[in-house]
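Standup notes, structure subgroup. Blocker cleared on the iron/sulfur cluster input:
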Amino acid sequence: MHRRIFCRICPLGGLISLFSTFTPFKQIALTKLTKNEQKCTKCGICKRACPTQATAVYDKKGGDVTESKCILCARCVEICPYKDALSIKIAGQTVINSRDWLEQTNYT
Ligand code: SF4
Ligand code: SF4
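Run returned:
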């Protein structure tokens, strides 16, 4: 009986090693959700919009508010109605930040 090659040499170890080598998986650790306490009005929209019920985005004061429940989906950043109150940074560089979208709404 002929055995397939992957029955002798398991490819799983190699795949795991590749996964941990490539940057997207390393970049996750460098990605942070941050809050500017001076710009936050404590409106609470971010906390209500979070799909994983992460609370640090609302409860923590300023700085890095990433927590274990946070999946960095950026929904809170999109819904926060105050410019630069929330942002997502990769290696210290802002890639997405909240906007003053309430002031831009035209109801006429
Ligand atoms: S939505 Fe923005 S302004 Fe409102 S509590 Fe959250 S971070 Fe603060
Ligand atoms: S980035 Fe997503 S998961 Fe993280 S706190 Fe904001 S809404 Fe919740």
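Discussed briefly. The chain is about 35% helix and 15% strand.
Next: hand off to the docking folks.
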